[in-house]
Amino acid sequence: MKYLIVLSFALLIAGVTGCGTTSSTDDSIDTNPDPYADPPGYSGDPFAGFGPVASITFPAEGDSEIEMVEQIESAGPWSIQIAACGSMDAALTLRDTVAAETNHPVFIDHTGSYYKVRVGSFATSSGTDSLRNQLRSSGYPDAWSVQR
Hints:
There is one protein chain. This protein has about 150 residues and is an alpha+beta fold. The chain has a domain at about 65-145: Alpha-Beta Plaits (2-Layer Sandwich), CATH 3.30.70. It is about 35% helix and about 20% strand. It contains 4 helices and 4 strands. Strands 2-3-1-4 form a 4-stranded antiparallel beta sheet. It is elongated, with a radius of gyration of 33 Å. It starts with a helix and ends with a strand.
């Protein structure tokens, strides 16, 4: 019993004196790491496993996305909706198919849970008539004019 009391007292003293509670700072750990740097210890090639670049396509001189968007927006807010798809993949497939069939811009508008595929950009509702009739006869019988 004596030994138990001595051992308990020794443990109590060790706890009071802070045994095992010392801390040290490691200056090698950066508290604000560079988010664009490689992770610590990383020495691999980030492009390993990818093939060489086969080709790069540049926009035509003078064309820019801003100019193209301005041209589309200046044409007007009316389009022909041909479908409302439940997934983006289905909408992208339909967009690519329709884009190959017409020379009008094809848009995907995400509204609620639907991805609406819309064709053309016109200033007025009546401006959509010709393209709407063409799309209906090309296999999109439910095509209708909408204001985007």
